[in-house]
Amino acid sequence: MDYGKHLEKIRMEHNISQTELATKIGTSHQNINRWERNLVLPNIHFCVKLADFYGVTLDELIGREVKKNW
Description:
It is globular, with a radius of gyration of 12 Å. The protein has 5 helices and no strands. By secondary structure, the protein is mostly helical. The model has no long low-confidence stretch (mean pLDDT 93). The protein has a single domain, classed as lambda repressor-like DNA-binding domains (434 Repressor (Amino-terminal Domain)), CATH 1.10.260.
């Protein structure tokens, strides 16, 4: 899975720049850029901040579809 592309897609859907997003969640735009280019993954702290900011679940944040096995 290309997590970076998905993070970028969600950000673009919300029409927000990397700099604006960084300010809103308390990081640098360089971190946002690194996440979107798959150079590093955001830690769980920032995953929760991103999910809360976008109003999505952590699964939705990373583009994971949950399949029920029952």
